[in-house]
Description:
By secondary structure, this protein is of the alpha/beta class. 49% of the residues lie in helices and 15% in strands. The protein has one domain (2-26, 77-209): 3-Layer(aba) Sandwich (Rossmann fold), CATH 3.40.50. Strand 5 (121-123) and strand 6 form a beta hairpin.
Amino acid sequence: MNIVLIGIQGSGKGTVVENISSQFEFDYISTGLLLREEIASGSRLGMQVKEIINKGNLVDNQLVLDLIFKRLRNNKKANVIFDGFPRNVSQAKDLEKLCELDLVVYLNLKKEDAFKRILNRLNCPKCGLTTSVDKAKSGICPSCGAKLERRADDNEDAINKRFEKFYSETYPLIDYYKKQNLVVEVDANLKPNEVADLVMRAINEHNYQK
Ligand SMILES: [Zn+2]
């Protein structure tokens, strides 16, 4: 079963993936993660990717597709969740050539709510933990004790730019997939466990119908 997860930054895609991973076995394919893994592997492709990113350029579409294709070919799990890909309709058409989709989950969150969440978010530079200003009032990582930071690109200008990009490029994907009857929309403003339950229900119902 192949699932695409779509949502504005801050809509909790990562949390959903974490929460459903105890109930559902899948290969998680995130573009950002794939690129980082390829670089870490030290492969020729990875070195290419590193050079492109270090120069501040975007990795081109074909390269991302190659990585996804390679990953799908090596995947042993029956289920795949895509996060951050496809990013636009053109990429969706590319993905169709690689695999058939079964479900598209759209985590719907109002821009204002996403904004609040992102600005409330803190990251641990040492262990990678993500928490919030509300939860970690001391500003210290509860897991390793390092000083928590806001990500450099979590400022209002950068967030607005990413939102604009989402609404102009990614949002049309939802209509595109609605026409294929693939979309389940989930209210991302609910509590994390409620959101995860709704996503799990959509997955189960889909399996049931098949
Ligand atoms: Zn930490």
